[in-house]
Design goal:
It is a peripheral membrane protein. One of its GO terms (cellular component) is mitochondrial inner membrane. InterPro entries: EF-4 (IPR006297), EFG_II (IPR041095), EFG_III/V (IPR035647), EFG_V-like (IPR000640), G_TR_CS (IPR031157), LepA_C_sf (IPR038363), LepA_CTD (IPR013842), LepA_IV (IPR035654). It is found in: Mitochondrion inner membrane. The chain is of the alpha+beta class. It is built from 13 helices and 29 strands. The protein has a six-stranded mixed beta sheet, sandwiched between helices. It has a six-stranded antiparallel β-barrel with strand order 7-8-12-10-9-13. Strands 18, 19, 20, 21, 22 and 23 form a six-stranded antiparallel beta sheet that branches. β2 and β3 form a beta hairpin. The radius of gyration is 25 Å and the shape is globular. Bound molecules: guanosine-5'-triphosphate (GTP). Guanosine-5'-triphosphate binds next to α1. The site of guanosine-5'-triphosphate (GTP) has 19 residues, from α1.
Length: 548
């Protein structure tokens, strides 16, 4: 394939606006998959993705399509829709020249529509706006076209209207991709240069790297070098995902070389041919953990089984960080860092479902900092107040949040933001009925119940997206819980000074009530955790630790 008959594109959208459904329709239309798999969402492969109906890990698929007498190779790179996985979205976009921006024509523009548009826009991609779900009775095409025009400055004639579910106008998508998205810039005859944009571990094949080739080509037997580490590898297999691995020389595809572990596959790395060094790609920013939580086996005999499961899962998800942790109350465990609370929930669910291990996951906490250097991953790391000077040496992570809401809920949303220590930066109307609010909030407020409260006070209509906004000085304290004058490590937490009273009272009430109830139960007594001279029923203890 010459580069003028190749297009690399992705589909971006707010959660549930229909990306996976559209991807399936396109794979069917090109005969890449058969119609029998209808609505099975072939690109969402993890069981947790099927259950929750969300895409966690980006996958790619290549398809062939005849257009105006010419055969094209179209490489689709699927992207996750949830804010926790924004990092996967940006690395997928780096392998594309264009993207389909999908908007639900009943819901209109939502917070992640805006965030994803700007990610694509800042990477200079061609954006094709598409209204989906036009079959729904609640679809309001003129209204959503107007929002797209106001917010992203697309003209109406640039917008396609489709139903990914029923297939209406689905045949307009691939021609638009071919005509509007530029061909990749690479040259087949130049030196080999490829971007590593995703990788995973397969039990049979080993480490598989997804690459996007900017120039030159490779074949089995070639030697390639990682620009990041300088290590040389033998190319063992190359091909495209269509949707399974297929030996074919494409431009976005997979390469298997003799990497022993996934940790050798640095996303954002550049591969080149031995003896033909190239200027490497700038690389991706490393994903940073935004929440930390303690993880322990519910049954301490399952410690090594859990260790194996964590090793296996992190093989394919290098964005989880793992540290050992020992708790006086819960024994041996780990402190894990995640991109967000959904990422954390998905990880826990996979441990339980794919490995059958009962686990205890503590309250999530955000990475506070002391003196700009030391990261406080757990309350245990919190510095002794008497040893630090003044109040100004502690910092907490902040996020820039975008909220889109119908205007009737604006007042309550602004109150919610101020209750959660938010600082409003702007309010913009995206049409006569909807407002986009930009607000800076402490990350710790977001990881608790902000999202649920926002959803309930807007009857589900407001949406939220946020990105890292660095650190700010903060008046932080560590709250310790004493049971019979002894501190219990697993119940300690770090929080803003203004929250101490509220949370302390909730805790106290809970401990007393739960202990009273559970002490009544005879069986409860068999499984007590001895803390100092007081025994707390195991169930009460766990429910306090994991209460969200
Ligand atoms: P994430 O991967 O989690 O971001 O979601 P997604 O954007 O891939 O959405 P998905 O394709 O899973 O679709 C979400 C829901 O919308 C599913 O129940 C689909 O069946 C439904 N859906 C998708 N497209 C259409 C459409 O054109 N019309 C109607 N009525 N429903 C649709």
């Amino acid at each position: 394939f010459e580069t003028d008959s190749i297009r690399n594109f992705s589909i971006i959208a707010h959660i549930d606006h229909g990306k996976s459904t559209l991807a399936d329709r396109l794979l069917e239309l090109t005969g890449t998959i058969s119609k029998e798999t209808k609505n099975l969402q072939v690109l969402d492969k993890l069981p947790v993705e099927r259950q929750r109906g969300i895409t966690v890990k980006a996958q790619s698929a290549s398809m062939f399509y005849n257009y105006k007498g010419k055969k094209y190779l179209l490489n689709l790179i699927d992207t996750p829709g949830h804010v926790d996985f924004n990092y996967e979205v940006s690395r997928s976009l780096a392998a594309c020249q264009g993207t389909v921006l999908l908007v639900d024509s009943a819901q209109g523009i939502q917070a992640q529509t805006v965030a994803n548009f700007y990610l694509a826009f800042s990477q200079n991609l061609t954006v094709i706006p598409v209204l989906n779900k036009i079959d729904l009775p609640g679809a309001d095409i003129p209204k959503v076209e107007n929002q797209i025009n106001n917010t992203f400055e697309f003209e109406k004639d640039q917008i396609l209207n489709i139903s990914a579910k029923t297939g209406i106008n689905i045949d307009q998508i691939l021609p638009a991709i071919i005509e509007r998205i530029p061909q990749p810039s690479g040259r087949r005859d130049g030196p080999f240069k490829a971007l590593l944009f995703d990788s995973w571990y397969d039990t049979y094949v080993g480490v598989i790297c997804l690459i996007s080739i900017e120039g030159g080509s490779i074949k089995r037997g070639d030697k390639i070098i990682s620009a990041h580490t300088g290590v040389s590898y033998d190319v063992m297999q190359v091909g495209i995902m269509s949707p399974e691995m297929k030996k074919f020389s494409g431009q976005v595809g997979y390469v298997v070389c003799n990497m022993k572990s996934i940790s050798e596959a640095h996303v954002g790395d550049t591969f080149f041919h031995q003896n033909h060094p190239v200027k490497p790609f700038p690389g991706f920013r490393q994903p940073k953990p935004m929440v930390f939580a303690g993880l322990f086996p519910a049954d301490s005999n399952e410690y090594s089984k859990l260790q194996d499961a964590i090793n296996q899962l992190t093989l394919n998800d290098s964005s989880v960080t793992v540290f050992r942790e020992t708790s006086a109350a819960l024994g041996q465990g780990w402190r894990l860092g995640f991109l967000g609370t959904l990422h954390m929930d998905v990880f826990k669910q996979r441990l339980e479902e794919e490995y059958g291990i009962d686990v205890i996951l503590s309250h999530p906490t955000v990475p506070y900092k002391c003196e700009k250097e030391l990261i406080i991953k757990s309350p245990e790391d919190f510095p002794d107040r008497s040893k630090i000077k003044g109040d100004s040496t502690l910092f907490e992570p902040m996020v820039s949040a975008t909220i889109i809401t119908p205007k009737e809920y604006l007042g309550s949303i602004l109150n919610l933001c101020s209750y959660h220590r938010g600082a409003l930066s702007s309010n913009t109307f995206i049409d006569e009925t909807r407002v986009m609010v930009s607000v800076k909030l402490p990350m710790s407020e977001i990881v608790t119940d902000f999202y649920d409260k926002m959803k309930s006070l807007s009857s589900g209509f407001a949406s939220l997206d946020y990105e890292d906004a660095g650190y700010e000085e903060s008046d932080l304290v560590k709250m310790e819980v004493l049971v019979n004058s002894k501190t219990v490590d697993a119940l300690a937490s770090v929080m803003h000074k203004s929250k101490v009273d509220l949370i302390g009272r909730e805790y106290g009430g809970d401990v007393t009530r739960k202990m009273k109830l559970l002490n009544k139960q005879k069986e409860g007594k068999k499984r007590m955790k001895a803390i100092g001279q007081v025994e707390i029923p195991h169930e009460a203890f766990i429910s306090l630790m994991t209460k969200s």
